[in-house]
Amino acid sequence: MRVTSVFNRLLDLSGITVTDVRFCADGVVVDVRLRSRRLRCPRCAFTTKARYDTRAEPSTWRHLDLAARRLRISADLRRLYCPVHGVITEGVPFARPGSRFTRDFEDLVGWLATTMDKTALARLVRVDWDTTGRIIERVVADRLDPDRLQHLFQVGVDEVSWRKGHSYLTLVSNHETGKFVWGREGKDAATLDHFFDDLGADRAQAIQAVSMDMSPAFRKSVSTHAGQAVICYDPFHVVALATAATGQGPPAGVAGTAQTARPGHCTPVPRSPLGPDEKSE
Ligand SMILES: [Zn+2]
Question: Which of 124, 156, 194, 240 is buried most, with the most CB atoms less than 10 Å from its CB?
Answer without folding.
Answer: 156
